[in-house]
Design a protein that fits this description.
The protein is an alpha/beta fold. It is built from eight helices and six strands; from the N terminus they run H-E-H-H-E-E-E-H-E-H-H-E-H-H. Strands 2-1-5-6 form a four-stranded parallel beta sheet, sandwiched between helices. Strands 3-4 form a two-stranded antiparallel sheet. Helix 1 packs antiparallel against helix 4. The structure holds uracil. The site of uracil has 13 residues, from helix 3.
């Protein structure tokens, strides 16, 4: 993994001359489950760890529902740096969805992570990760959530992004059902 990370850092530094603060994946390289999010936010960038901010807190309580603890997981993001926009009036920096170019730049490294960790199941969080891992740019979480994705190149279970539940409370019940379905799916696949 170390040499793959080095190569990826070099690629990113070639594209962005000021460099980027990278938030790399975290967890055992023999983890049976790999969780893939969208991109780090402010807290993640400050601590250089994925899912440690508000979305991470949500994720922890959701994981509880699946019986999975962080120590059996490898957690990563599709894009390894924080995509931001700056409000011209207030100079406030906020998150934005990653661009197609940012995703394309990081995708080879995500594939490399999946090859090295070789998890039994990849759980995608939200549309960006679902499309990146499935290789299907038209896949949508609204129809695929809560189940193993048929025909995907890896064993892929799609979940809504934990942040979307913060912004859309009506998803909470669906999310809980999806987590219970994930637990059942993992029970079948993991020993
Ligand atoms: N949201 C993500 O998708 N990833 C993180 O690491 C944090 C928030």
């Amino acid at each position: 993994m170390k040499s793959a990370v080095k190569k990826f850092e070099t690629t990113v530094n070639t594209v962005y001359e000021n460099g980027k603060i990278l938030v790399m994946g975290e967890g055992g390289l023999d983890s049976p489950v790999m969780l893939v999010g969208e991109a780090p936010g402010e807290q993640e960038t400050m601590q250089k760890r994925p899912f440690v901010g508000k979305a991470g807190k949500n994720l922890d309580s959701f994981l509880h529902e699946t019986g999975l603890s962080r120590d059996r997981l490898y957690i990563t993001n599709t894009v390894k740096f924080r995509p931001t926009r700056v409000n011209e009036k207030t100079a406030r920096v906020s998150n934005r969805p990653p661009s197609r170019e940012e995703i394309a730049l990081c995708l080879p490294f995500l594939r490399e992570e999946m090859r090295i960790v070789a998890p039994k199941v990849v759980v995608t969080l939200g549309n960006v990760a679902l499309r990146a891992v499935s290789g299907n740019p038209k896949a949508t979480i609204g129809t695929l959530h809560g189940a193993m994705m048929p025909g995907a190149p890896v064993e892929l279970f799609a979940l809504y992004h934990p942040a979307s539940v913060i912004y859309n409370r009506s998803l909470a019940e669906t999310y809980m059902e999806d987590l219970r379905a994930l637990r059942r799916a993992l029970d079948q696949v993991l020993d």
